[in-house]
Amino acid sequence: MDLESGKPVFIEELVQNPTQHANKTVRITGILHAYDPAFDRAEVADGLNLLIVDTQLLGVQKYNVGQIYQLIGVISDVHNDQMAPPINLFKEAQYSLDIVLRARVVWEVDGLDMAIYKKTVLAMRQALEC
Length: 130
Hints:
Elements: E1 7-8, H1 11-16, E2 25-36, E3 41-46, E4 49-54, E5 68-77, E6 99-108, H2 114-129
Organism: Coemansia reversa (strain ATCC 12441 / NRRL 1564)
Protein name: Replication factor A protein 3
InterPro entries: NA-bd_OB-fold, Ten1_animal_plant
């Protein structure tokens, strides 16, 4: 079985158009906002945008709320799932309860300059369009 590499996608893009990336492998970067080991669920935020993450495939990990993480996984439609309610959504959050990232890889990237990272991803996308 071949695994796809994760295409860098911003959480904002997933929230604004949840069906565009459905069933695709993506790599997201954001701050761990909340984690619930009882449900194998996390919430990762980038600014006011929030994505719900299924961490079941990651096994036992020590997560630090407030740290920056990158995750690779498949965006899945949750209409057919028995998803637990959101953990700790902040009032201003923009999110979609229609999708979830089923993460298979995670690593901490605390210290990553998110502004430079975003510029780099956008420049990479523009270069690959040529």
